[in-house]
Design brief:
Number of helices: 3
Strand content: under 5%
Number of strands: 0
Radius of gyration: 26 Å
Order of helices and strands: HHH
Oligomer: single chain
Number of domains: 1
Length: 116
């Protein structure tokens, strides 16, 4: 294994690490989104029993507004994650193209050497 092969393995390994981190990030964002949606859709029963009607309405309004804000931010983060995923896919394609080009060049050199 020569120096180029080792470099290619290191780059590929790093790209796989980035891809796995993006998959983990995707799962965490989805879990967080489900939690926020649950909080948005189900009011806190402790607030309903312990507070007056106006305090409960104010609390529910603030909670819904904050949940809406969090859902908006989650969607923004998902867009950023998708963009990063596309960049990693592009990097994989570039590395694959470079590796194939190097292999073709090596095969060409080898075929010329064998023709002699």
């Amino acid at each position: 294994m020569d120096k180029n092969d080792v470099a290619e393995l290191e780059v590929t390994h790093e790209l796989h690490n980035i891809r796995s981190a993006l998959l983990l990030y995707h799962g965490l964002l989805k879990d967080f989104e489900h939690s926020v949606e649950f909080i948005h859709d189900h009011p806190n029963p402790a607030l309903i029993r312990a507070s007056s009607q106006s305090a409960t309405e104010t609390s529910n309004e603030l909670l819904k507004r904050e949940c809406h804000y969090l859902l908006t931010e989650i969607k923004r983060l998902q867009g950023t994650k998708d963009m990063c995923r596309e960049r990693v896919a592009n990097a994989f394609d570039l590395v694959r193209t470079i590796i194939q080009g190097a292999r073709l060049q090596a095969a060409d050199v080898l075929s010329r050497y064998l023709e002699l």
